[in-house]
Specification:
Helix content: over 70%
Number of helices: 2
Strand content: under 5%
Oligomer: single chain
Shape: elongated
Number of domains: 1
Largest sheet: none
Order of helices and strands: HH
Radius of gyration: 16 Å
Distance between the termini: 16 Å
Structural class: mainly alpha
Mean pLDDT: 88
Number of strands: 0
């Protein structure tokens, strides 16, 4: 896993955690659309994390020098 992948993984996990902490405001106008967009964003972040993990697992072994 490259340093960029590590940074991206950390950012995606932080994003997912923030979305999980989000409390819907049922009285707010447009809340349904906001909640739907948040759920879609979370799903995309989870998929991207899985892609990074898969790419890392499929990479050839490179011993540390």
């Amino acid at each position: 896993m490259t340093a960029t992948d590590v940074e991206l993984t950390r950012a995606l996990r932080e994003l997912i955690a923030a979305l999980d902490r989000r409390v819907p405001r049922v009285a707010s106008v447009g809340e349904a659309a906001i909640a739907r967009d948040a759920q879609l964003l979370r799903e995309r972040a989870v998929r991207r994390l899985a892609e990074i993990a898969f790419d890392d697992a499929a990479a050839p072994f490179e011993p540390l020098t």
